[in-house]
Design brief:
Two copies of one chain form a homodimer. Chain A has helices spanning 27-39, 72-80, 137-145, 212-224, 232-239; strands at residues 2-10, 46-47, 56-66, 87-94, 107-116, 129-131, 149-152, 167-181, 196-205, 254-260. In chain A, a hairpin with an 8-residue loop joins strand 2 (46-47) and strand 3 (56-66). In chain A, strands 1, 2, 3, 4, 5, 6, 7, 8, 9 and 10 form a ten-stranded mixed sheet that branches. Chain A is of the alpha+beta class and 275 residues long. The first copy, chain A, is built from five helices and ten strands. In chain A, helix 3 crosses helix 4. Chain A has two domains: 2-104, Pseudouridine synthase I, catalytic domain, N-terminal subdomain (Alpha-Beta Plaits, 2-Layer Sandwich), CATH 3.30.70; 107-257, Pseudouridine synthase I, catalytic domain, C-terminal subdomain (Alpha-Beta Plaits, 2-Layer Sandwich). Chain A is globular and about 65 Å long. Chain A binds chain B through residues 9-11, 56, 58, 76, 80, 85-90, 118-125, 127, 132-133, 184, 186-187, 190, 269, 271-272, 274, and chain B through 9-11, 56, 58, 76, 80, 85-90, 118-125, 127, 132-133, 184, 186-187, 190, 269, 271-272, 274.
Chain lengths: 275, 275
């Protein structure tokens, strides 16, 4: 049996999340349906992890076993032709037999996007949180630094979390300013030290608890608003108490950005299949 | 009576175009509905021009007359609260009495966006054309130069055009490369002189014929594919024959980008209304 791995991007807007659920539209369900149409086989797909309803992915990784003969360099084009437009397979690999998308990642990166502007951007409204008042980007960046390292993230986990340990290691936790938006003249004095612009919060770690990035995002927004100070992030972290952090931020601004499996695929990307 | 002008952005995906049509969902219809809910008045809106079904706008301009007392600095927030999420008023001006959105623009700019990559970007698929094989960006840019100036654009007008003259002046016609995408090793030799990446075609002129930008976009893609040479653009232009140019490109990659009315509003943007 071959072990096929795929990098999959999807717009999660219209889905009840990654994982198959009876009676729900899911990413996994659509992938398995397309694989059935393509191969005639009932194939079970493993994802690197679930994403919640409304959450997107730029680089979700899945794997599955099959004895179908479709060459790896033709697989992406063939499956994309059978998937809805909001799910796109970006690359396909012949994975080692022992590879399993869920068990093997060295790290996962999530991105949470915020547009801090007077009015929403109609073209990105489904992929970013609109925050109408300015935020202190520098304070937010400072607050995020406290999360780097190995910590018990109980304060940033949904009470629905079923994990026995809440200890995770965060390798990277940073704010990227994509664009700064100008203030109007009459406006700046109201918001000393604050900015408007499009920002992204990247969090890279060895694992994540349920709702963890969305709770971090909501808490760092409170820092940006001046309702919390950067050092409050450290205080909230050591409290190990969910009620100390902010309520969970909206799902539509979150994307599973990238996964790192080290050298497992070698460095052989799929060769292109255009003629 | 006040004369109110607004800059409006919209995602045209779910609309039958800008202009009101009985039984159709239109941008004008939604704006007039929101103005009715807000003011209790049946207000007729003038747009700078129609946009076709599926075409977007970053900076459409509209104006309308009203005796409602809503201050200009509160108007955007008030109307946005009554509009669907895919139509967003970006700014509101108290316009001079003689201002009319359709009659007054000095220039209009359209943008046509193309993602030249193996697979589509799920997050921008509704706003750009996906072109799977590489294109010669330099040849495309060269071809576009032939369109700058005053010309008869009959070759680039839908036969449905009802305009008596097809002479228009194009001030700017250029290709912007937003990002270049890397080629894989095995790939580059197949496409000498061609690139992959996200590109935008900007066309700025004193007026446009029906489907003009979409026909220009489709023709310049043929140049990028090597099926036409840059100088063919000049040949097609002088032919004044629609059948010489390429079939009309898809509407979803086109946006009405900006309008220039000169100094008509002075330089007073709406003051922000956050507290």
């Amino acid at each position: 049996m071959r072990n096929i791995a795929m990098i999959v991007s999807y717009d999660g807007t219209n889905y009840s999340g990654f994982q198959s659920q009876p009676g729900c539209l899911t990413i996994q369900g659509e992938l398995e349906k397309a694989l059935f149409v393509l191969t005639g086989q009932h194939i079970r797909v493993n994802g690197s992890g679930r994403t919640d309803a409304g959450v997107h992915a730029k680089g979700q990784v899945i794997n599955f076993r099959t004895d179908c003969g479709i060459p790896v360099e033709r697989f992406a084009l063939a499956i994309n032709a059978r998937l809805p437009g909001d799910i796109v397979v970006q690359s396909v690999y012949e994975a080692p037999q022992e590879f399993h998308a869920r068990h093997d990642p060295k790290s996962k990166t999530y991105r949470y996007s915020i547009l801090c502007s007077r009015f929403a951007d109609v073209f990105r409204r489904k992929y970013e949180l609109h925050h109408p008042t300015p935020l202190d980007f520098a304070a937010m960046a400072k607050g995020l630094e406290h999360l780097i390292g190995e910590h018990d993230f109980s304060s940033f986990a949904s009470p629905k979390s079923t994990k026995s340990s809440h200890v995770r290691t965060i390798y990277e936790c940073r704010l990227e300013v994509e664009t700064l938006l100008p203030f109007e003249d009459t406006d700046a004095w109201r918001y000393p030290g604050k900015q408007r612009g499009r920002i992204h919060l990247y969090v890279k770690g060895n694992g994540f608890l349920y709702n963890m990035v969305r709770i971090i995002a909501a808490t760092v927004i409170l820092i940006g608003e001046g309702k919390l100070s950067p050092s409050d992030m450290a205080r909230i972290l050591v409290a190990k108490d969910r009620s100390q952090a902010a309520p969970t931020a909206a799902p539509h601004a979150l994307s599973l950005w990238a996964l790192d499996y080290g050298e497992v695929f070698g460095d052989k990307p799929e060769t292109p299949d255009e003629a």
